Structures are given as structure tokens and as C-alpha cells.
Amino acid sequence: MEIESSLRSSELRDEHRDDLMYTLQQAYQAIESWKAHQLRSIQQDKVRTSLLENLETSSILITQDWAMKFLPQKYRETQAYWFVKRGIAWHISFVARKIAGKLQHQTFVYIVENCSQDSNVVVCII
């Protein structure tokens, strides 16, 4: 908050001070969002690690998610063309199992054109 108080007491034009205050607030929000993301990642990793350690031979752990869309590119395409592309959806399934104390895993990638990324599509993939 020292930066904020320094900005408030500075002899800058009001417009410039407002711009800097806005940038500062955006930076604060970005830092808080990053901290929250890191905390969620750590907690999720603890649960995933615990599940894998306690995985029985008759069970599997499946982790699924939609990956970032693949956007095919043309040589020297225009910016307007880039932003109207829809992209090709990728659905990733990571399957883990434990056999004789050893962890085995396999990854499945499903490439789906022209679909909505909703539960109906995921059920069809499964």
C-alpha cells in the first residue's frame, strides 16, 4: 500500500494519477488471482497424490479436461482471419492404475471438430 499512498500524494496530473491507480489495482487483482490459483493447484495436487498412493489394483483414476483449442494456421494470415477461427477441440483423458505396486498410465486424446464442449460430448467420448 506504500505505492498507493505515494501515488495519491504525488504531484501528477489527475488523469495520469488515475491511470496509474487503475494499473496498480489491476496488478493487485492479478497477484491475488495468481496466489489463489497456486493454492488451488497445491490442494488439488495433494488430493491427486493421495488418490494415486492409495489406488487399489481393482480401481483406476481418470482425469479429464478440454485442452486449449488447436488453431490451424496459414502462412501470413491476416489478423481478422485469425480471430474468426473456431478451432478444433481436444479432449484429454489421463488414466492411471496400479499393478503389483507399480503405477501405470495411459493418455487418450480425442480431437473433435464442430462440437460444443459440454457434458453430452464428454459422455459420448467416455
Structure description:
This protein has helices spanning 2-9, 14-53, 79-84, 119-125; strands spanning 60-70, 88-99, 102-112. It has 126 residues and is an alpha+beta fold. It has two domains: 1-54, no CATH class; 57-126, no CATH class. Strands 1-2-3 form a three-stranded antiparallel sheet, with no helix packed on it. Helix 1 (2-9) runs antiparallel to helix 2 (14-53). The longest helix has 40 residues, at 14-53. It is flat, with a radius of gyration of 23 Å. The protein starts with a helix and ends with a helix.
What percent strand? 25-35%
**For the largest beta sheet, what order do the strands appear in spatially?**
1-2-3
**Uncertain residue segments:** none
Number of structurally distinct domains: 2
SSE run: HHEHEEH
User: What would you report as the Rg, rounded to the nearest angstrom?
Assistant: 23 Å
Based on secondary structure, the structural category is alpha+beta
Sheet having the most strands: 3 strands, antiparallel
Task: Report how far the terminal alpha carbons are from each other.
Answer: 50 Å
How many H/I helices? 4
- Can you count the beta strands? 3
Layout: helices, strands, pairs:
Blueprint: H1 2-9, H2 14-53, E1 60-70, H3 79-84, E2 88-99, E3 102-112, H4 119-125
Helix pairs in contact: 1-2
Keyword list:
27% strand, flat, 4 helices, 126 residues, three-stranded antiparallel sheet, 2 domains
